Amino acid sequence: MGIVNLEIVALVIKSLLHRKVRTFLTTLGIIIGVALVFSLVSLNGGMKASIIDQMDALGSDVVTIMGKPLPGLGLDGIFTSGDIEVVERLSSVQVITGLYMTGMDITIRDKVIFKALGGLEPDKIELFADLFSGFGVDKGRFLYDYERGKIVVGPLFAEDHNLGIGSRITIGEEAFRIVGIMEPVGNGEDDRNIYMNAEDLWELNGIDDIFIVLFGKVHEPKVEAIERALEKYRGQKDFEVMTSESMMSMMDSILDVVNAVFLAVASISILVGSIGVANTMYVSVLERVGEIGVLKAIGATKNQILFMFLLEAGLVGIIGGIIGIILGYSIAFGFTYAATASGFMDLKPLITPALFLVSAGSAFVVGMIAGFVPARWAANLEPVEALRYE
């Protein structure tokens, strides 16, 4: 009497249910590996999507000029009005303006905190707000050119400290009045910024005519002319000129490296998990040699025995994959919640149907590959030898 594949499937499910604890422990390596892959790939995709949105909002015609990074020392090179004038004279440049950034103690209702501040080029404050995205005003107004003693703040900064239009805060030893609260941009750090006239910030720091970053709009996103003009004026190339595209490419490279490292770690976990599956399948085969003999005696073929143990290994893999997907989903959204709550960035994991299918499918395939050798050994057992086995 022969047996059909549906009966084989029923035997496999019965075996897995009978060994629930062993099945779960066997899947741990696959669970961890799939969870890491799922969470990292979805977060990486979400970060890339967020960066693309920010770059699109910034515009393809925007260039950023900053000093070259020095390991452990911040940025090499600062800029002055002379640098701005040199770049402004280029026909390819529509406009260029400077931003001075520093950190200072600020006092809010007798509470002192250290805060990063941005100083805008005095004669281009209104132009800066009009040309560059992310500087829309939700309440009040933006600063006027040359306006002193006034500031605009990000919405989260205002919310954190219960501030509104007309509120006053002390920066250094000087009092400043809030005239505008900016529109949210979805980035916790940017939504807590404070902007003011650079002359106020220079005066508080005892300096004059210094910018940390230059922002410009160009007629075409080419940087060679800007690089040549600035290098000639400064006598050295201690700066970098980046377009939105080059910034996106740099961020892509960084994210790809981080992704590759973590995927390598996840792959090791999956490999360890596959070894666990193979070991468990060997034990399962040895425990069921007599059963294999009975099945062959009533007509089960080698292919059916092979199918039975491959299916069992594959199901062990896919069970681990499904649990790993659930865990990875939880990790991804837990991380995004923590990132958003801490003001890092408004990040949403990019989860697609393909990611679900690939995660579950790869776990199933890994399980089947891991179980192939013990399954083949079981399939090749002779019925008489199997029935005699003790």
Share of residues in helices:
55-70%
What order do the helices and strands follow?
HHEEHEEHEEHEEEHEHEHHHHH
Mean pLDDT figure: 82
What portion of the residues fall into strands of 2 or more residues? 15-25%
Count the E strands.
Answer: 11
Evaluate the radius of gyration: 32 Å
Layout of strands and helices, then pairs:
Blueprint: H1 5-18, H2 20-58, E1 62-70, E2 74-76, H3 81-88, E3 93-108, E4 111-120, H4 125-131, E5 137-140, E6 150-153, H5 155-160, E7 168-171, E8 174-182, E9 194-197, H6 198-205, E10 213-218, H7 224-234, E11 239-243, H8 244-287, H9 289-297, H10 302-341, H11 353-379, H12 383-388
Parallel strand pairs: 4-9, 6-8
Antiparallel strand pairs: 1-2, 1-10, 1-11, 3-4, 3-7, 3-10, 5-8, 6-9, 7-8
Question: What report would you give on this structure?
Answer:
The mean pLDDT is 82. Helices cover 56% and strands 19% of the residues. Strands 3-4-9-6-8-7 form a six-stranded mixed barrel. By secondary structure, the chain is α+β, with helices and mostly antiparallel strands.
